[in-house]
TrEMBL record, chain A:
Transmembrane segments: 49-66, 73-90, 96-119, 140-166, 220-239, 251-268
This protein's name: Glycine betaine/proline transport system substrate-binding protein
Family per record: Belongs to the binding-protein-dependent transport system permease family. CysTW subfamily.
Protein source organism: Amphibacillus marinus
One Gene Ontology biological process: choline transport
UniProtKB/TrEMBL annotation, chain B:
SUBUNIT field: The complex is probably composed of two ATP-binding proteins, two transmembrane proteins and a solute-binding protein.
InterPro entries linked to this entry: AAA+_ATPase, ABC_osmolyte_uptake_ATP-bind, ABC_transporter-like_ATP-bd, ABC_transporter-like_CS, CBS_dom, CBS_dom_sf, Gly-betaine_transp_ATP-bd, P-loop_NTPase
Subcellular location: Cell inner membrane
Annotated membrane topology: Peripheral membrane protein
EC number: 7.6.2.9
One Gene Ontology term of the molecular function aspect: ATP binding
SMART domains: AAA, CBS
Protein known as: Quaternary amine transport ATP-binding protein
Record NCBIfam families: proV (TIGR01186)
Domain annotation ABC transporter: ranges: 21-264
Amino acid sequence: MFDFIPQIPLADWVDAATNFITSTFSFVFNPIRNQFGDFMSWTASQLSAIPPFVIVILVAVCAFFITGKRIGLAAFSVVGLILIDNQGLWDQLMSTFTLVIIASLLSIIIGVPVGILMSKSKTAEAIILPILDFMQTMPAFVYLIPAVAFFSIGMVPGVFASLIFATPPTVRFTNLGIRQVSTELVEAAEAFGSTGSQRLFKVELPMAKKTIMAGINQTVMLSLSMVVIASMIGAPGLGRPVLSALQRAQAGPGFVAGLSIVILAIIMDRFTQNIYKK
Amino acid sequence: MPVIAVKDLSKVFGKNIKQSLKLLDEGKKKDEILKETGDTVGVNRASFEVEAGEIFVIMGLSGSGKSTLIRLINRLIEPTEGSVTIDGENLATMNKDDLRRVRREKLSMVFQKFGLFPFRTILENAEYGLEVQGMPKQEREEKAKKALDLVGLGNYVNQYPEQLSGGMQQRVGLARALANDPEVLLMDEAFSALDPLIRKDMQDELLELQQSMQKTIIFITHDLDEALRIGDRIALMKDGSIVQIGTPEEILVNPANDYVERFVEDVDRSKVLTAENIMKRPETINIEKHGPRVALERMAEEGISSIYVTDSKRNLKGYVTADDASAARKKEIRDLKEILKTNVPTVERDKPMQEIFELIYDSPVPIPVVDNGKLVGIIIRGSVLAALAGESEVLNNV
């Protein structure tokens, strides 16, 4: 079928583009890899240096107040974190936590402004929407290849892959949140002579806050789900024991590491959810 | 000299605007233009002038273009053609900065669904117009408080909009509009979302405020009674065009065409009016809190011989008569339940007046009007007769 069309060398083009970008922009990538990588390892090691019981207490206290002085999440956090420590996965937990937090923060820093831009311009929306679809549906493993080419192995390419995978919900929800602000409120802002930025910061963003926070919650969860995948390119953390258990077909250690990821996911999910419910 | 002058103001929504404007000039109608070009005519060459201190009402049914027209005046919608002049400046053509200045200093708007910011307190809502001007906090708080005092909400500054009733929320909307002391107040169906009784109160209050403020007000409504009550002059709109402008008297006595006439003609009122239109605010006591003594006092105060009893949620429980209450007091009965009469005929809000006649002549007490079991008003014989006689001041809205 369609033999009359010669095979288009799509793969070769992408290779060429990747090589070109890698060599041309190495002056950008190398410092990012080194400086940023050092910063992340330093953060993770600082977190690991804090005695676990301090962190457990801190998380429990925060959980208690953030859920409106209820005991449920605090108790769960204490039991869950102690279990992870008991299984000897504390350092990995701290690495994963660092990776997720930094990847999520970057996603938010990039995603919210892009979402705002999208909500303000139909053209921007028309261009960005398919890109977001592309980012979310392309299998995450595929990002790992250029990530390694650009940033070598370790935490930095992990963050890069996670950024691509986890940013779309924040962008989408920011756009949606702002577009959902009722016309009457937008008209009220306009009728009283607001400038564009006054309208955005005094009316639209406060109104869209809950929706944006729901997007951020999704982003955090997605970057956590990248942990295992990122461990394939040498990102340290809870993904590594999962990966090595997989390679050696060890159900037990795999389950323990997986359970640790679940515990972390539940704690982070409830934290972000309770922030936006307020 | 008029404060605001609107001349040949038009709005066409669609893609073939040039062609549609040409057709408008040829005198084609809204639906003809829709057929020919696919464009919708929102407003068709509206012209009028509003004098200082005047309440100018723009009235029309939904789809008549009145909401579009008011938004063309402060350019929330870009006019296709024509001019809006305030103090010699043409809003329709001025640049963004000038437009913002005029909106801040000369024009304020009150919205149908109030348009309050739910995350801001009442005071912060009232401050909004001043805040965007960059006025220092203390000064703008002072002015906003003054505006809130003016509408009787001085004690609610720290509440949030959702904590207030609809009528109170719209007072906040009014206060926000008054806080920056505009020359012109644009009110877009400002009272249409309110209960009939509250609406009447708000109309009275607006008129009272206007006595002292003397603002120039452009008021949009679909309600003829509202227009007649508050308007110094009324413009009637149909299909995007203004079909008549005149005082309420002129409109009623000399309708310009069939459309206006149909609007104002005196139809058989007993068929048109419903319970809602003729009900009055009920005097009530609360079965959970009050006893025969309170009931008696309340009746004496209001000069009535029976009073309706509700629970805290305003669900109708029955009524007590003055005779029973005074007998109960002598016997030192504390509980209202012992003297409560429960066999009352009730009517729903939308019950035609015709069907209320029989009920009211058989009933020893006023007829309660209920909405899902909640007491919303009462009907007394006097108001039924007055309404039939065509005395519109007894009507809530038609």
